[in-house]
Amino acid sequence: MDADVVIAGAGPTGLMLACELRLAGVDVVVVERLAERTGESRAGGMHSRTLEVLDQRGILDRFLAVGEPQPVGHFSGLYLDFDEFESRHPYPLMILQSAIERLLEEWAGELGVRVRFSSEVSGIRQDEAGVTVELSTAEAAPATLRARYLVGCDGGRSTVRKLSGIDFPGTEATMTALIGDVELPDLPEDYVWVRRCAGGDWSAIAFEPGWYRVITSEYDRVVDRDEAPTFEQLRQSLVRLAGTDFGMHSPRWVSRFNDAARQAATYRDGRVLLAGDAAHIHFPAGGQGLNMGVQDAVNLGWKLASVVRGRAPESLLDTYHTERHAVGERVLHNTRAQSALARPGAQTDALREVFGSLMVFDDVNRHLRGMLTALDIRYPVDGDHLLAGRRVPDADLKTSDGTTRVHELLHCARPVLLDLRGSAELAKVAGGWADRVDVVEARSEDEHWPVPGVGEIPAPAALLIRPDGHVAWAAPAEGAPGVRALRAALTTWFGPARHG
């Protein structure tokens, strides 16, 4: 084997997955068809759950030093408030994808990830023992890599998905949007946010001093995806919508997107898996795409590592599809709704006014922000505790070594059995998984923990936390801890116990 896992695509999803695998001691190679980084800005931010994921790995400070927190978000251009009660990082972080990729690539280098540029997947052959990946490279002869698994993180036009024959059903585009980073010397305002017009809408957002991200959206105009976008097309589109180009010049980057929404029928075909845009594409409303890809990677990484290292059965990989496909369906659903809510016309204007009036109610705002931030995701985990399947709150803890936080316990990407009542019985049960699960005894600084979409709940007596930060099992604050259920959860998620 040339590697345990080959990852196609060195974007945020592929790099995050590579780092997750390396934290677990898995040998990984990332292959990227591009010859080098383009420097294109692309996506522009990260939501609360993604920031928490980075905090769980101890690298969030790198991103906070580059990005800028924003006090509000939006649903189809309608402002959405955030609640500091729900997360330590309640606000979206404005940070360009180019910076995200640079920081993740630096971290990957520290962890020993191998990245091969100018290497495009051209063929895949699976067998019982592994997968052979054929590559087109800058060299004269094609290259091959042999690995146990291949993960396609190679974008919406994923070669890995196509070669694997995985269906990509969904809905066709109904509009065309152009986006570019340009200078706008004649713009009379500091920024323009979703200015609605007869044919669509436009925005001009200042990302850097003197530079604006211009976005134009025109409905019932669908352009061939294979047609390369140009600066002139962006300029003409802005003229049609705004009546002027505001002296637009010096484009750094121009791209195009639309509201087509598609999702892979399965995220796994044997030894081939999909993550990020290779598994789902959608209208980029609310900035959910990059975030969903990073969270795909964190959900898949520890599971794939456990299987590769022989610590869990291969069936664990099926839970990746079960959990993340449902999340993708929900994002496609809400982005279709946002696209419909953005269409021009008097009827939609009236709908937006009514919808906006509803968003001032706390319950509506809470529901929408939970959807956009992914803080309210609950995976189908056995157990009736309110925390079961949800992401664990980042509670303050006191241990024998001092104070810490729940998310700090996850820096090594290992499962944690957090005992908040000092139960010798729980530690005894966990002994069979001592090679895979860290047992931490602590006390919660707070009697109640906040849970997005639920409110405050009593701090649990104990909980089993997966490496992705979701709760696999929790014991109630009062009553018996339920060791049988704990043993079942340990076996389900981390394989059979080992003794001796």
Automatic annotation (TrEMBL):
Keywords, in A-Z order: FAD, Flavoprotein
A GO molecular function held by the record: oxidoreductase activity, acting on paired donors, with incorporation or reduction of molecular oxygen, NAD(P)H as one donor, and incorporation of one atom of oxygen
Domain of life the protein comes from: Bacteria
The keyword Lipoprotein appears for this protein: no
Cofactor: FAD
Residue span(s) of domain FAD-binding: 2-334
Alphabetical list of InterPro entries matching this protein: FAD-bd, FAD/NAD-bd_sf, RIFMO-like
Keyword check for Magnesium: no
Protein known as: FAD-binding domain-containing protein
